[in-house]
Every structure is written in C-alpha cells, then in structure tokens.
Amino acid sequence: DKHRKGLVPKPTPKEVSREEHSGHAMLCVGYSDADKVFIVRNSWGKDWGDKGYCYIPYDYITNKKYNDGDTWIIKKIDTDELDESHWGDDDSLLEDFDSELDNMSEDDYEEMLDAMGDYPVEYRLGLIALHAANADDELSDEELEQISSYLKDTFKKLGSEYSVKEVLKFARKNLDDEDLLEESIELLGEHLSNSLLANITNSLYEIVEADDLSEEEEEFVDDLVDAWQVDDDEDDEDDDDEDYEEDDEEDEDDVKKKKKKKKKKKK
User: How does pLDDT run across 153-206, given as a tens digit for each residue?
Assistant: First the structure.
C-alpha cells in the first residue's frame, strides 16, 4: 500500500478526461503554513496513508482542475476562544530523510534497499528531480543549481557517500528511460512515508520554480502528488464496488432460493 504512511498526487490529464475516474470527498482537518500543505483525513481507515491521513499541497486542493470546483467549508456554530498557545510555530510537521531513517525498522530498511535493486534511493531521487525540472524540455542553470543544493543536503541527511555530480550524470544519461522513472516513483511511494513524500514534492516545487514555472513542470509535480497521496482511492473504490456487486449477487441468490422454497410448499 503506497499510502500506508501518508502523501497525495494529482490526476493525470488522461485520468481527468475519463468518465470512470470518479470523485472522492476527503476532509481537511489541519494545515501547515511552513510546508504549505493541508492535513487531510480520508475515509479508508487507519491502514491507509499516515494512519488514515495524508498531506496535500494548498495549490492542489484549491485547483479547480482537481476539486471539480466543489470545495466546502464546514463552520461550527459554537466557536472556541483561542490564544497564541493554540497556534503552531513555523516548524515543519513533515518528515525528512534523517528522521525517516531513524523511525524505520531494520526490516523495513533492508526491504527498501532490496527493492531498489541496482539503483539506490539517491539515484532514483536525482532522476525524478531532473525529470521535474526538464518537464518543459528546458533545463536551466537555476534549476540545476537548485537540484544540486537539494541533493547535497539530502545526501548529508542520508549519510550517503554518493556525489551529486555522479548522480546527476546518471540522471542525464537515463532521462529518456520512462520505465525507470515510473519504477522509481512507484518504489519511493511504497517505501517512504507519506509525510516524507510530501516533503519531497515540496522540494520539487521549489526546484521547478527556480526559473519561470511552466505548466508542464507544475503538472509533473502535481502528478507525483497524485501518485503518492491520492491515487489509491480509485482502486479502493473499485474494490468497494466489487464487494457491493458480490453482495448484490448473494442477495439475488437468496431471493431465488426463497422463491423456490415457496413454490415447493405450494405443491
């Protein structure tokens, strides 16, 4: 379950155009100005996301392309009196790589390393970052500088010995490998917490905004939010629909059996 620990992506243009991509209501229960994300509660139970919650960027929630222009605010009749002690500070509520690894069990860590195979997290992260910046086929010096700074800081938190130069060289070489990109997005979604994934997408937004933000760059990062934070909803709904269909079939069978019994009694 790629949402077992909690983050949300946007529907792709193909999904948006599909009639079968049904909407799903979720509830914003908090926010973090430091991270520019809403804390969102879903209805799939505590096994989904980060104990039932995920983290979705402000811009995603308020974008009419993804919310169907149907966003509601629930107001309380009674208001609580709040003072400064009730408000949070400017500290991030999202996980980072150092705290993520500290909280990860040895088994989960080994499982993640095995799953990454020939390409470690550092390489996959660099590939995703480069794809984000190059989504408009224009990789600027400002974006490269931002990527290098982000990777350098991240590698330090990971305690990694890989060089940023080496990773970027790998990413450039494999920029056309769409299968590796999709695999990397999927693996990070499966093995990193939703909180950390939200942190990663925030960093990617900063990278693509280093120069003039293009629609293609914004769409790429939004798609990551969708893949890491939202996408499983549709699968869950499909599963629920299948369950309902099975229940309906069972009910129909029960009705048929009862009718047969009545006919036998009449005879």
Answer: 999 999 999 999 999 999 999 999 999 999 999 999 999 998 899 999 999 999
Determine phi and psi for 213, rounding to 5 degrees: -70, 125
User: H or E stretch including 14?
Assistant: helix 13-17
Residue 261 CA to residue 263 CA, distance in Å, equals 5
Per-residue HEC secondary structure of 205-234 comes to HHHHCCCCCCHHHHHHHHHHHHHHHHCHHH
Residue pair 172/130 in contact (Cβ under 8 Å)? The answer is yes
Task: Quote the CA–CA distance of 152 and 29 in Å, as a whole number.
Answer: 34
pTM: 0.65
Q: Which residues contact 46 (CB under 8 A, 6 or more apart)?
A: 52
Domain boundaries, the chain: 13-69+91-232
Residue 50 CA to residue 193 CA, distance in Å, equals: 7
Residue 101: CB partners within 8 Å, gap ≥ 6? 109, 158
**Tokens 């040895």 belong to which residue?**
106
Q: List the one residue out of 259, 255, 230 whose CA is nearest residue 24.
A: 230
Residues comprising the chain, all counted: 267
CB 95, CB 199: distance < 8 Å: yes
One-letter amino acid for residue 247 of the chain: D
